[in-house]
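Data availability (excerpt). The following record was deposited with the supplementary files.
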Amino acid sequence: PEWIDQIRNDLEIKLILSRNFQTTKSDVLQPNLSVKTPLATYKVDANSFKLLPIMKTIFLFRGKAVEIVENDSVKFGIEVPSSMIDPVAFEIAGSGHVRPYRSGHVILADAGIEPILSEDILIKTVDNKYFIGEYMYDRESEIEIRTIDDFPEVIQKVDIEKTYAIVAFYTSRKKLPIST
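Predicted structure:
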């Protein structure tokens, strides 16, 4: 996944996301446009992006199981391409992990696309356990990841309820308030 953090401006973020999710608006997809190009000329159609509420909190503590809970009240969201298939945003709470897994940061994942080997993945099992880490291999009956605590974890495919391809990370300053 590409980093989306405080050193990028809003237009650079939209450019990165439009490339990753093949946004179809002609003014968003410009094949020869790069971040080095003066971005003042880069026009983004407001309809190409949507505000995705941050509906879940992911609790990450070094050496402990990953826990995900639904947020009681949704106060913030992040901008994502409208073309994402099944996006979900997780706000990180916890301590003991380095960037990008810091408290307050947001993970953008898409359950509608296939995870890619060597990229980060979030897995939910049928018994409601969660695993997060680098997608190491996929065999006929199992998946192995290297957890964010740097341990190998083998998960049987029959035990997997859902996989989420992690596609971007946001710092807390990229969260946008949602008015109620």
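Summary of structural features: The CA atoms of residues 20 and 167 lie 8 Å apart.
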